[in-house]
Amino acid sequence: MDNTVVISTPPHVKSKRTTRGIMGDVAIALLPAAIAGIVFFGWQALVIEIVSVLACVATEFCYYFIANGGFAKKCKNAGKVCKKWLHQFDLTSVVTGLILALILPSTAKWYEVLIGGIFAIAIVKMFFGGTGKNLVNPASAARVFMFLSFSLTTYVAAKIGPIMLESELYTGATNLSGHLLTAQSTAMHPIDLLVGTGVAGCIGETCKAAIIIGYIYLVVRKVIKWWQPVLFLGLFGFTAVLLSGFAMESYKFDMSLFLPHIMSGGVMFAAVFMFTDYVTSPKCVWGQLFYYAVGAILLALLRYFTKIEVASFVILIMNLFVPLIDRYFIRKPFGYIKEKKAKEGK
Questions:
Q1: Alpha-carbon distance values, 337 to 287, 331, 334 (Å)
Q2: What is the DSSP letter of 154?
Q3: What does the CA dihedral 52, 56, 57, 60 come to, rounded to 10 degrees?
Q4: pLDDT confidence of residue 13
Q5: 175 contact partners, CB below 8 Å, separation of at least 6
Q6: Which terminus in the chain has less CB density within 10 A, N or C?
Q7: pLDDT digits (tens, 9 = 90+) for 237-274
Q8: Separation CA 226–CA 272 (nearest Å)
Q9: What is the pLDDT at residue 191?
Q10: What share of the chain is helix, strand, coil (3-state, %, to 5)?
Q11: Conformation bin of residue 172: beta by default, left when phi > 0, alpha when psi is -120 to 50
């Protein structure tokens, strides 16, 4: 009789859902925003998306190839290493590359995108051990790195629509210091913000309708919980409306600014595709509630005082606190049943 004890890491519950399948669903959910970005911003957006995805996938392959001895013994094991990489390829680098491309302006240069993709995979993901071991969101980290390195502050308006056509802005993803934080009469119409017509911003963040389609797909496929982006956007919008009242001559709480706030910049895209990242978000439901609530309020505060889009910065800050959140918000063990209190007198 074989008495060998097999020790393996959790989880031990088998399921048909795999990392590759989940990432495939996320990639599909990102397609509407990616297509809308190409329609609105032209071939520049297509080039950025292709370069970003190829850079991320190629960087992952090169890192894996070198780390697994692909060049050892005059590359005799190169074929085996390549097959091994294909077998474990889980599409995470594809999703990272696509998200990174969609949170960039169409004015980004191809070599800047290439450097950003390499940084996201090599430094943020693979350096810490690969899939599931990165401390922060690779796309957010790369976006902040590119912002600080290349000063990506020029945003052109979508090529469809009458508003701000062919214009350029030098602030955030939208002119947040203008129509959102001043008088209501200068605010952009919610329909234009929803569709993305004439809105200056990043490639995948402009058309909110495409993001909503991706959100619905992820909820139906049970990749994310429906309440996660809703909670985040609700708290963010309410806090932003509270703060907007201070920009008036006399304080005024105006809920008509709620939709313009949540549909401007990259807030909605971040809420659906980035804050919900499995690896860099808390595991416990109560921890997730705390995570989304604090992140939403922090984003509203920083956005109000800086007058620029700071979603990627807030994501990085919250990611760094996730280990601490998981330490104090502990999940119930699998199969745990709460003990019933014994009745008095027994």
A1: 20, 13, 9
A2: -
A3: 170
A4: 61
A5: 169, 200
A6: N
A7: 999 999 887 776 667 777 888 988 898 889 999 999 99
A8: 10
A9: 82
A10: 60, 0, 40
A11: beta
Contact 98, 137 (CB under 8 A): no
H helix or E strand, kind and range, residue 314: helix 311-328
Please state, in angstroms and rounded to a whole number, the distance separating the CA atoms of residues 38 and 75. 40
When the pLDDT of each residue in the chain is averaged and rounded to a whole number, the result is 85
Residue 231 CA, chain-centre distance (Å), reads: 16
pLDDT value at 32 more than 80: yes
Tokens (6 digits) for 279: 């690896």
* CB 205 within 8 Å of CB 265: yes
Place of tokens 């490639």: 203
Residues 6+ apart with CB under 8 A from 312: 103, 140, 143, 144, 147, 266, 270, 274
Q: What are the structure tokens assigned to 193, written together? A: 């913000």
Give the C-alpha separation, 200 to 325, whole Å: 36
- Crossing angle for the helix pair 19-41 and 43-67, nearest 10 degrees? 150
The answer to whether the CB of 181 falls within 8 A of the CB of 303 is no
CA dist., res. 280 & res. 254, Å (int)? 34
What is d(CA 45, CA 107) in angstroms, rounded to the nearest whole number?
Answer: 9
Instruction: Look at the block and give the residue holding tokens 């119930």.
Output: 332
pTM over 0.85: yes
Q: Point out which residues pair with 200 in neighbouring strands.
A: 157
The residues pairing with 156 across neighbouring beta strands, listed in sequence order, are 168
pLDDT band at 183 (very low <50, low <70, confident <90, very high): very low
pLDDT tens per residue across span 129-169: 888 889 999 999 999 999 999 988 778 877 665 444 344 44
pLDDT at 239: 94
Average pLDDT of 298-323?
A: 93
Of 64-68, 267-271, 342-346, the one with minimum mean pLDDT is 342-346
- Give the H or E element holding residue 299: helix 285-306
Can you list the positions of beta strands (E) in 138-274? 155-156, 168-169
Please name which of 292, 163, 157, 264 lies closest in space to residue 205, comparing C-alpha atoms: 264
